């Protein structure tokens, strides 16, 4: 049986993976669904940055080996940093509708400016996400009921990598929006057609843990 560490994206806690985690545990797997620092709504957001979230996941992995590490959306940045630090403990590194970033990049380089209040930025409105991520209202309501304002420093701090070569398998689970980005020809996303990557497509929106729960669990179990 495998050990999974599931890291949700911006605004979300480990609760977002609850149903997926339950399905994997029912198959006998060990599953850790991570709530990153500040994503419980607590703490001084001015003291939380990308390094904080990388350290959170490194601590969860601990002495475990052959870990399947999954990062959704924003957490693609986090798990890239984790793999750089403890890659020898990973069996597979999985980007869930996400992608790795380069040394020296920050999320703000990709997203553009974000309005923050008290060093946090709020979960977007349904109108914004409907346009940007094609979310349906039911899913938005489920997420927004528990989502918390995200610590700004995690987007502002650049990723710092040592450049060690990966010894683990690299996988991308591509949902609708991600496949659209690949289709644009943007250089960042063209790597996922290369032999170094395994790619699995799921025909659903950006939050497959809600909109394709069983399918996502099956994909993860089959990796």
TrEMBL record:
Residues 5-218 form the AB hydrolase-1 domain. Gene3D superfamilies: alpha/beta hydrolase. GO terms for molecular function: hydrolase activity. InterPro entries: AB_hydrolase_1, AB_hydrolase_fold, Sec-Metab_Biosynth_Hydrolase. It comes from the Bacteria. Keywords: Hydrolase. The keyword Hydrolase applies. The keyword Hydrolase applies. PANTHER family: AB HYDROLASE-1 DOMAIN-CONTAINING PROTEIN-RELATED, ESTERASE_LIPASE_THIOESTERASE DOMAIN-CONTAINING PROTEIN. This is Alpha/beta fold hydrolase.
């Amino acid at each position: 049986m495998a050990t999974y560490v599931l890291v949700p994206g911006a605004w979300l806690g480990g609760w977002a993976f609850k149903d997926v985690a339950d399905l994997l545990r029912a198959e006998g797997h060990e599953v850790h669904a991570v709530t990153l620092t500040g994503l419980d709504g607590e703490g001084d957001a001015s003291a939380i940055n990308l390094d904080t979230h990388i350290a959170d996941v490194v601590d969860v992995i601990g002495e475990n080996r052959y870990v399947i590490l999954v990062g959704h959306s924003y957490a693609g940045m986090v798990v890239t940093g984790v793999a750089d630090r403890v890659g020898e403990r990973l069996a597979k590194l999985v980007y869930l509708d996400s992608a790795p970033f380069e040394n020296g990049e920050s999320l703000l380089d990709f997203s553009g400016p974000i309005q923050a209040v008290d060093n946090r930025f709020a979960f977007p409105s349904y109108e914004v996400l409907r346009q940007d991520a094609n979310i349906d209202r039911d899913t938005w309501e489920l997420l927004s009921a528990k989502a918390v304002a995200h610590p700004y420093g995690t987007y502002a701090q650049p990723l710092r990598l040592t450049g060690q070569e990966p010894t683990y398998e690299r996988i991308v689970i591509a949902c609708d929006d991600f496949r659209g980005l690949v289709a644009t020809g943007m250089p960042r996303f063209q790597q996922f057609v290369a032999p170094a990557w395994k790619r699995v497509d799921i025909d659903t929106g950006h939050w497959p843990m809600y909109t394709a729960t069983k399918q996502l669990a099956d994909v993860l179990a089959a990796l």
